[in-house]
Amino acid sequence: MARDTITVQEPVLDATKSVASGKITAQAVTVANGIEIENAVENKDNSLQITVINTGAKKAVTFKAGDVYPNACLGDLSIDVDGSATTVFLLHDISRFERKDKSVYVDFETGFTGSIYAVAKHAGIRKLS
């Protein structure tokens, strides 16, 4: 199955480094494809926030078990999301879902309609000049 890919969006810090803001874009979900969140684990302090906007009836969202760490043996995690609602997921143990390429896979129950986006703080060390 060829998954639809989204990237983690990173709001920009203001000059005081107190508030981050920016335009966030959601992507429509194609249930048959599922979603791959590229570089999902490349964020600061496990700050990844995945938001699912469900425009239809109550359906399950499934975070697929990863293929890197031993705790992936816990398997997939399916969570029902209410109909006509926005649900925010903060993956506390992201390594359970981490894939070798640093992505996370998300699947949706048949009949799901809606969109998804992921937001995180930027992680990384600036190159020294």
- Number of domains as seen in the coordinates: 1
Order of helices and strands: EEEEEEEEEEE
Number of separate strands: 11
Specify the biggest β-sheet: 5 strands, mixed
| Mean of pLDDT | 90
| Apparent shape | globular
The proportion of strand residues reads: 35-45%
Which runs of at least 5 residues are low in confidence (pLDDT < 50)? Answer: none
The structure class reads mainly beta
- Count, helices: 0
The helical percent reads under 10%
Task: Give the N-to-C terminal Cα separation.
Answer: 43 Å
Please compute the radius of gyration using only Cα atoms. Answer: 15 Å
Strand order, sheet with most strands: 1-5-10-7-8
Question: Secondary-structure blueprint of this entry?
Answer:
Blueprint: E1 4-7, E2 12-13, E3 20-21, E4 27-28, E5 35-38, E6 49-54, E7 59-63, E8 77-81, E9 85-90, E10 104-108, E11 114-119
Parallel strand pairs: 1-5
Antiparallel strand pairs: 2-3, 4-11, 5-10, 6-9, 6-11, 7-8, 7-10
Describe this structure in words.
It is a single chain. With 129 residues, this protein is mainly β. The chain has one domain. It contains no helices and 11 strands. It has a 5-stranded mixed sheet, with no helix packed on it. Strands 4-11-6-9 form a 4-stranded antiparallel sheet, with no helix packed on it. β2 and β3 form a beta hairpin. The protein is globular, with a radius of gyration of 15 Å.
